[in-house]
Amino acid sequence: MDTIIIRHLRESLALLPMENFGPANEFYRRLFELAPEVRPMFNREIGLQAKKFSEMLAWIIANLDRPDELSSEMRALGARHGGYGVTIDQYAPIGSALMWMFQHTLGDRFTPEMEEAWLEFYAFLSFEMERGAREAATTGTHP
Amino acid sequence: MIQVGIDIIGALADRATEGGVLLPLNTALVSHHLDQALNSPLFRHAERQARFLRFVVDSALHSPESTIKEFDIGIAVYDRRSDYDPRMDPIVRVEAARLRARLREYYEVTPPEHVRIDIPKGRYVPVFIPVNGDLAVVNTDLSVLVPPFRCLSADLGDHNFCDGLTEEVLHKLAQVPGLRVITQSVAARLEQIEGPKPHYLLEASVRRAGTEIRLVLQLMELTGGGSTHFSKIYQATINEIFTTQEQLAEEIRRDISAALHIRKRVTGASTS
User: Fold this and answer.
1) pLDDT value at B22 more than 90
2) Which among B47, B88, B101 has CB closest to A123?
3) Is the CB of residue A91 less than 8 Å away from at least one CB of chain B?
4) B179 CB contacts (<8 Å, ≥6 apart)?
5) Interchain contact, B91 vs A92, CB within 8 Å
6) Do residues B131 and B146 both lie within one domain?
7) Of residues B47, B48, B101, nearest to A124 (C-beta)
8) B 50-89 residues with CB below 8 A of A?
9) N or C terminus of chain A with fewer C-beta within 10 Å?
């Protein structure tokens, strides 16, 4: 992955105040506004979900320079999401909520270059997840 | 590689460009390619992205003068309301990045036969890139309107020379494959008929001093806003009138063919 993109991703994540998983809570609030139909897919309490989301985000950013491992993990995550019933179209509001989380939390500190990096990276992540879901559906191995 | 894109140069979205020459785009071929792509598994299960791609391609093909805004896509493809604010809801930017990735994946799995659709970063207007210079993406032959060359003298002999030279050039250009030559009289008749204008206008003026001839020639793009595409001054010494006319006409034919990349069109793929 482009080192400049990696730098922007890491810098923007480092700016997020992670206490109480506030940004992640904002992410879910925004996601349910944009796509209320996905709310029933989340059985667990949103606070716990936000914690898990924050941890996943931190893991992803820590593993940016290990693309094979990242791809493999994203495909597995996609396969699980496919099992929950997430459709390809639903990756759009998820991405929009992710961008909004950064914009909303960081304001002007979330630069256009950072947004561009996240757009590019989310396209990669979501595509790997989609691929994982597709493979799982083909082989009947949804977790 | 020949750069063909409907909007590579400005908002002329129904035009392909070949080395800067505006050419009409084979919209039927592009539409067919779009249908093929959208029927592939990668797009069949991605309904919104398929709508996104169809929207931008159709907009570019059918409304060539318009630009495609993030807001328009939000309304047309993502069912946003009229108070939708792209700054607050970046769904179109998110999806554009994903669509680019999907197109890349599609072309890795299904190498395109004639044309490849691309949506360059930072814009929503697609470009159409011919595969290996395949000019099937270009629709019809080029056409050039050639009015009589102007004679800048009152001498009857000079006028005759000009008329003869015009005829000789018309004859030479008419033999260039892929080039449709339209004379002034035909153009006048075509004005009564609805249809596309000629792509180019070839104008020349001729001056004589003793046995020396000076011809100023200009090839102008009619479909690209009237800008000069090629210009050259020719000089010749009249020894024998017919020979001089023929030599000048041959030189002009070569130059015009080169300026319009005619050789490439002929040795490339067949036009549809």
Assistant:
1) no
2) B101
3) yes
4) B141, B142, B143, B144, B173, B256, B257, B260, B262
5) yes
6) no
7) B101
8) 78, 87-89
9) C
Single-letter code of the amino acid located at A109: R
Any idea of the CA torsion for B206, B207, B213, B216, to the nearest 10 degrees? -50
| Separation between Cα atoms, residue A139 and residue A6, nearest integer Å | 33
Per residue in B116-142, pLDDT (tens digit) is 899 988 889 888 877 765 555 554 457
Residue pair B180/B143 in contact by the 8 Å Cβ criterion: yes
Question: Taking CB atoms and an 8 Å limit, are A122 and B101 in contact across chains?
Answer: no
Q: Do B249 and B157 fall into the same domain?
A: yes
Instruction: Tell me the CATH number for domain A3-139.
Output: 1.10.490.10
Say yes or no: B94 and B180 in one domain. Answer: no
Neighbouring C-beta atoms of residue B115, cutoff 10 Å = 23
pTM equals 0.64
For residues B101 and B202, membership in a common domain is answered with no
B2 within domain boundaries: no
For residue B197, the tally of other CB atoms under 10 A from its CB is 14
Asked if A120's CB is within 8 angstroms of B98's CB, the reply is no
Q: B56 pLDDT exceeds 90? A: yes
